[in-house]
Amino acid sequence: PGATPLDDRRGTTDGAARSPRPDERDLSREKVFQATKASMHQELLEAIDLSRIAKVDPDSLRKELTGLADALIRRRPHAKDLDKARLVDELMNEFYGLGPLEALLGDDSITDILVNSPGEVYIERQGKLERTGVVFADQAHLVRIIQRVVARSGRRIDESSAMVDARLPDGSRINAVVPPVAVGGPI
Questions:
Q1: CA–CA separation, 149 vs 181, rounded Å?
Q2: Among residues 31, 62, 83, 157, which one has the fewest Cβ atoms lying within 10 Å of its Cβ?
């Protein structure tokens, strides 16, 4: 009674089987990808004139990002195995969208997205909860995305206003909590 589907991390509250957990190696690789992307994103923010981004069409920005990403990848020996096309797509999502959540938001079969920590993202599909392989680089990355989502509702979230329950312009809802109220990190 009163339990949420995430109260029991081993399964759903109704006893139904959940999709198997993503392979830990895959999650580890994804964390490396996200950390590298976050680092590159920061470098790109420093290299690009941010006042121009709103004025530049996405195709031109994509070309510029592709060139910069090529140069940044060449300077990082560990990044040579990264999927450059995915990296550029996700960097575009960092500039124009909601970062790692964009792929989930584009899937019409997903009815709910639950982010419990930077490395723990669940979706609901056809009434069943599934853990995804989606990860954020760190808590700061997750907070930035939460702030971007909350801003769409005309609200803000930070230490002084650490909880938000709002309806977004498309009718969907956002419930977010950040530290200090969320002791374990942003959700």
A1: 19
A2: 83
Strand 120-125's sheet: what is its strand order?
A: 110-117, 120-125, 128-131
Handedness of CA 122, 32, 63, 152 (dihedral sign): positive
What pLDDT was estimated at residue 8? 37
Q: What is the rounded distance in angstroms from the CA atom of residue 167 to the CA atom of residue 187?
A: 17
Closest CA to 58 of 70, 47, 66, 68: 66
Nearest Cα residue to 159 out of 139, 182, 136, 184: 182
What would the pLDDT profile of 139-160 be if each residue is shown by its tens digit? Answer: 988 998 999 889 888 899 999 9
- 63 has pLDDT over 90: no
Q: What is the DSSP letter of 111?
A: E
Gap between the Cα atoms of 59 and 57, Å rounded: 6
Cβ atoms of 148 and 155 within 8 Å: the answer is no
CA-closest candidate to residue 175, choices 132, 114, 120, 98: 114
Question: What pLDDT, on a 0 to 100 scale, did the predictor assign at position 15?
Answer: 37
Neighbours of 104 (CB within 10 A): 16
